[in-house]
Write a structure and sequence with these properties.
Helix content: 40-55%
Structural class: alpha/beta
Number of strands: 14
Largest sheet: 7 strands, mixed
Number of helices: 12
Radius of gyration: 18 Å
Strand order of the largest sheet: 9-11-10-8-14-12-13
Strand content: 15-25%
Shape: globular
Distance between the termini: 18 Å
Amino acid sequence: MSKIAIISDSASTIPTTLRNRYHIFQVNDPIIFGDEVYKETVDVQGLGELVKMMKDKKMIASTSQPAPGDWEEALNDAKAAGYDAALIIPISSGLSGAFQTAQAVAAGYDGMADVRVWDSKFAVMGSGMQAVMAADMAEKGRSMDDIWAALTTLRETFDVRFAVNDISHLQRTGRLSRGAALVGGLLNIKPILSMDVQGEGKIGAVGKARKMSGALKEIKTALDQYLTQVDYPVRAVVVDGNNQKLGDKWLKDLQNEYPMVTFERGEIGAYIGVHTGDGAMGVLWARDWENII
């Protein structure tokens, strides 16, 4: 029986406690200031720190995908730890070239019996949740094919809504794939966005609100519609981009209104925050992965 390592990237923002609990290996994504490269969670601890760095440097950060050697190093670490197979789960191929690069590394890696790469079609705890489920199954001795099938089931149930204070960051970094006309050129609005999880895993605008309170109302409408269409337990994650107080408030509100849903808290890290900007808020949801395995 293979001992399967799960490898994620830092943009999945899996809490350290969960990564340690499930022994998930992590590749840290690069954040770039001019000629200087910083690694998320190593050199930049969160979106708040990134915002401060941009103010201090008077520069706008950009991002790049991890180098092939970063994925190979993670595989080597897993092999040294006694794993003979690995499943790499980076953020969506629609947001980064990480998936394609990891695929190329996996295809040429001969240190393990089986190395595969899963396209999460998501980011932050959307991809993170998939990695956690895979790690739980691997810990229980489930096969690679079983894990792959469970990931397929889980990914098909995902949806998300999030709001940003300023759409220009997503436009500048080329991460807004559709719906720009819906919010383009309008001032004092909160663009509401989603991800094409069942397609290419790209970001698109689906609405707008004047305030974050209005954005939450739109999010609830989307969640209501989802809940009327499913017959399985749902797990949701409230994520904030350097706005913990509002995130905690949203969590309490949603827990009170949707007692049938299991809610968790997460964050938008520095890497994804380059694209969303400061203060973004969102909620993602899917079938409760514990109900799948």
